[in-house]
Design goal:
alpha/beta, eight-stranded parallel β-sheet, six-stranded antiparallel β-sheet, 16 strands, 32% helix, disordered N terminus
């Protein structure tokens, strides 16, 4: 777990009594008094976390009177937990049921503690966590480092210790901490402090930080080395929307890899390009395959945001593709990279355990039929002198044996992908 000197605890208590200090003054006090190195070691996220999250599909729908089926309530999360188990997702690794914004009451209780909305969560978060745990799953919750959440609910600024203990007492297994209603100058202080208090509870709680996303929004390069010391996973780009344009925008950002953030991915630390929208409304079948393939290549958390109660069979099959999941969950934890780009065509590769590689060839064109592109395994960075045997990840069919110099002809569909596992011969 994250280790700080005893001085850090004292610094935080002093911070509470000096809420009107400027950010620069607080930073100076912390820099002077901490004076220690620290690193995250909570034993979690050794591979990218997998599960389900409510935000993209259900947003901040709190109208349980007229839209009970889709509103943010304990019933929604219990139903999704049920489907993760009954429909086979849990057994494939999808284990987190993640609450996002708008779960809380608008006011803290008389002791200053967060509390769930009493009408939409009448049993409370502890009972919901117990239910989720009874299914062999884990419960995640949402908070915000600022004074308010993005949806206008109570934030954790100046309440970090209390909120961390509250989450632990409830049996929460993961915290997503957003960054609304604060300033980026505070993040380098506040996010590590919340990790400190989470670890002080003694309960292993996976920590998801939105810290770098807000730095990127400010047109700066985040300090990924510092972020990786405190966070298991971190969002570093905008929220995904239910559209092909949103998915390709995120992929482009990850392909550009500004600040070399890919180098900070590994067991215990992963970049998070946001939720999987496979099974929603905005993507075609081919486009859903693109997202699943690229999120596997990029060693991204696989957090679905869809309605598991009504998901289509073809979307479910993509999400439950065992080979794609095994690539995503490869124990080396190396984030794949874009290794070739030509107009609307890209090739991505990811090194895997046992000298294997994952390869994704993506075509962003939207007209006509499949494009034809020719390359070789050697040209895209594979090195085994005896060549490789390729398997199509989505069909499970053999795709041929290739030496490093043999021409590899690729024909991905418009806004589609070819996804291969390459095993050394």
């Amino acid at each position: 777990m994250l280790r700080f000197s005893n001085a850090l605890e004292a610094v935080h208590k002093s911070w509470l009594s000096f809420q009107t200090m400027t950010t620069k003054m607080m930073s100076l006090v912390l820099l002077v008094l901490i004076g220690v190195t620290h690193s995250l070691d909570n034993g979690l996220a050794r591979t990218p976390p997998m599960g389900w999250m409510s935000w993209q599909r259900f947003r901040c729908n709190i109208d349980c009177k007229d839209d009970k089926y889709n509103c943010i309530s304990e019933d929604l999360y219990m139903e999704m937990a049920d489907h993760l188990v009954s429909d086979g997702y849990r057994d494939l690794g999808y284990e987190y049921v993640n609450i996002d914004d708008c779960w809380a009451a608008k006011q803290r209780d008389s002791d200053g503690k967060l509390r769930a909305d009493p009408e939409r969560f009448p049993s409370g978060i502890k009972k919901l966590a117990d239910y989720v745990h009874s299914k062999g799953l884990k419960l995640g919750i949402y908070g915000d480092f600022g004074t308010l959440t993005c949806g206008g609910y109570p934030g954790s600024k100046f309440y970090e210790e209390l909120d961390a203990q509250t989450f632990a007492d409830w049996g929460v297994d993961s915290l997503k901490l957003d960054g609304c209603y604060s300033t980026i100058d505070d993040y380098a202080i506040g996010y590590p402090l919340m990790e400190f208090w989470l670890n002080k509870t003694g309960r292993p709680i996976l920590y998801s930080c939105s810290w770098p996303a807000y730095v990127v929004f400010s047109h700066k390069i985040p300090d990924y080395a510092a972020i990786a010391k405190s966070c298991n996973i971190w969002r570093n780009y905008g929220d995904i929307q239910d559209s092909w344009g949103s998915v390709t925008d995120i992929i482009r950002f990850y392909g550009n890899d500004s600040g070399n953030f890919s180098s900070f991915a590994g067991p215990g630390n992963f970049n998070d390009p946001d939720m999987i929208i496979v099974g929603d409304y905005g993507l075609s079948f081919d486009q859903q395959q693109v997202q699943m393939a690229l999120w596997a290549i990029m060693a991204s958390p696989l957090l679905m945001s869809n309605d598991l109660r009504i998901i289509r069979a073809e979307s479910k099959a993509i999400l439950q593709n065992k080979m794609a999941i095994s690539i995503n969950q490869d124990p080396l934890g190396i984030q794949g990279k874009r290794v070739y780009m030509n107009n609307k065509f890209e090739i991505w590769t990811r090194p895997l355990k046992d000298s294997r590689f994952a390869i994704a060839a993506v075509y962003y064109g939207t007209g006509g039929g499949p494009t034809r592109q020719m390359t070789s395994l050697g040209k895209i960075g594979l090195t085994n002198q005896n060549g490789y045997t390729l398997t199509d990840v989505f069909t499970g069919q053999p795709a041929g044996k290739y030496s490093l110099n043999t021409t590899l002809t690729l024909r991905p569909n418009p806004s589609g992908v070819l996804f291969f596992l390459a095993v050394p011969q």
